[in-house]
Write a structure and sequence with these properties.
This protein has 304 residues and is an alpha+beta fold. The chain has helices at residues 29-109, 113-122, 140-176, and strands at 2-6, 9-14, 23-28, 187-190, 193-196, 203-206, 209-212, 218-220, 225-233, 237-245, 248-255, 257-258, 265-266, 271-274, 285-292, 295-297. A hairpin with a 3-residue loop joins strand 9 (225-233) and strand 10 (237-245). Bound molecules: zinc ion. Zinc ion (ZN) is lined by residues 190, 206, 208, 210, 287. Keywords: Coiled coil, Membrane, Transmembrane, Transmembrane helix.
Length: 304
């Protein structure tokens, strides 16, 4: 470029490297200045805009990250709520099953005279199941109420089952303490009640059951209990007496050998003595007695 200052003008001459003619442009200096200002202004504006866009971009990016973070957390919370709803539902099912089991146990046991009174006293009907959590909308208050209701039903069920177990334990104890087995297997030679005396022509009341068995055969306690007497009794010979509680006692007489001591606890089926013919007896046999509240009862009512 060739510049030629001439007063307030400059001339630019353009000489092509071919045979084409040269040409020149003349412009005023003030125009050049103006153009410089415009260029500088444009540069400043561009720089400012770049800074502005950069900052905006950064802010937008940060806000976007924040939003996606929040969305992730919300999703996690939603997942948790669904999990709790599912858990509540399955807990409710289990509580319902427990209540049904409790009800059928009571139904099965209701005809047991030993249990009836105990079961009737405290039974409360299973409560109505609470409605399931609604899928639409998260009702925290309702969810809490449901959980509290489940907790209450579980507690009630725990009490019911404890009561059932206590009643069954009492029944089992009573069953164990009720004579129910044969003290010895053998032929019944004399039943309970009035009979002709084997020692004369008179009639007498026979207060037990005579069971014939070979001398020395083992005699079993017919129920759990505590030995209250082990010794010789006039007429009955060597005798063991056991108290079973609930006013029930058993006695085993005419034995040849006593294998327990007074005060000793025995279990149903324990061997307590051996068959003999001590006392007023005509041969080896066991005289077996059952007394309820001190009165002799027919032992045959207490044999399986
Ligand atoms: Zn007898």
């Amino acid at each position: 470029m060739k510049g030629n200052k001439r007063g307030g003008f400059i001339t630019l001459m353009i000489i092509p490297h071919s045979e084409k003619p040269t040409f020149s442009i003349s412009v005023t200096l003030s125009l050049i200045k103006l153009m410089k200002y415009i260029a500088a202004g444009t540069a400043v504006l561009l720089a400012g805009a770049s800074v502005y866009f950069f900052l905006s971009y950064r802010e937008l990016k940060a806000r976007n990250e924040e939003l996606s973070d929040k969305a992730g957390k919300y999703e996690a919370i939603q997942d948790r709520i669904e999990y709790f709803e599912e858990k509540t539902r399955s807990m409710e099912e289990k509580v319902k099953k427990l209540e049904e089991l409790d009800a059928s146990l009571r139904e099965m046991l209701k005809n047991d005279p030993a249990l009836k009174a105990q079961l009737d006293r405290k039974t409360s009907p299973p409560s109505q199941p609470a409605g399931l959590a609604s899928r639409s909308g998260i009702d925290r208050q309702r969810a809490l109420e449901q959980l509290e209701e489940l907790d209450r039903r579980l507690e009630e069920q725990e009490n019911n089952l404890e009561q059932l177990v206590a009643a069954l334990e009492a029944r089992n104890k009573r069953l164990a303490c009720t004579p129910s087995i044969w003290p010895i297997r053998g032929r019944v030679t004399s039943g309970f009640g009035y009979r002709r005396s084997p020692f004369g022509r008179s009639t007498e009341f026979h207060d037990g059951l005579d069971i014939a068995a070979p001398y020395g055969s083992p005699i079993k306690a017919t129920a759990d209990g505590k030995v209250t007497f082990a010794g010789y009794k006039s007429g009955y010979g060597y005798t063991v007496e056991i108290s079973h509680g609930y006013g029930i006692e058993t006695a085993y007489s005419h034995v040849s050998r006593i294998l327990v001591k007074a005060g000793q606890r025995v279990k149903k089926g324990d061997t307590i003595a051996r068959v003999g013919s001590s006392g007023r007896s005509t041969g080896p046999h066991l005289h077996y007695m059952v007394k309820v509240n001190g009165m002799p009862r027919n032992p045959e009512e207490y044999l399986d």
